[in-house]
Each structure stands twice: as structure tokens, then as C-alpha cells.
Amino acid sequence: MQLNTIKPAPGSKPARVRVGRGIGSGLGKTCGRGHKGQFARAGKGKIKAGFEGGQMPLQRRLPKVGFRSLQAGESAELALFRLSAFAGQSLDLEAMKAAGLIPAYAQKAKIILRGEVSGAVHLKGIKATARAKEAIIAAGGSVE
Q: What is the pTM of this model?
């Protein structure tokens, strides 16, 4: 076998359609494109996805609906170093709101590890990341 003798299996590749070869072929004159119009022209038959002939497309007729997180306003994050001013105290959500650490509308809070805490702080009903929890416990505090 040689490269110049390789051919696909018979019937696997149908012969290409030869248009514009006379009336007897069935695809003469207009070559199956009909008379006039966008698709009868050479190179003009492309329509972008979603085009509806000039009518306002569906994606523009429908109202825009954005994304609004259900938890967006209710949770607050707090850096660990901000707890240093409350060393030796017990903090819960209400105490943190009163101290101005978190906004009044927050319904839950979470301590993240940023900086370090100098004294023991006891947290009640407040979440903390694993590393922040380790740092609080290492400083003599607790997380409930």
C-alpha cells in the first residue's frame, strides 16, 4: 500500500453536488437558491444568532432580571484583629452591634483570620473560620 493509492471505501463519500450545469441536472440557472433575496446572493446568507428579520429579538423583548442574593444583607464578616479591643469580654451578635463592629441589619456574623487577637475573647453564637477559631483558642478564648 502506498499513500497515493489510498481511497475511502466506496459509497462512504458521496460525489459533491455540481450546481449550475444545465436544466437537466435539476440545479441549473439559479442553482437551487430561488429568485432574488438575501440567500440568493453570494456570501450574503449569514444571519447572526437570534436575528428575527428586524423584529425586536426575544432576548431584547424579555425584561432584565438581575441577581439578588438572599443572604446579601444579613451576614457580616469581621477581621480577627478587631476583637483585640474586647479582650476578656464575652461577645454575641447583639454586643457586636452595640459596639459598632458589625452593621445593625446583620443577622449573622463570621470571624475571619486577619491579624491576630491579643487577649482572650469568648464568642457566643458567632461563626469563625477554622484558622480564626484556632487563633482565638490559642489566645485563651472560646467559640461556642
A: 0.51
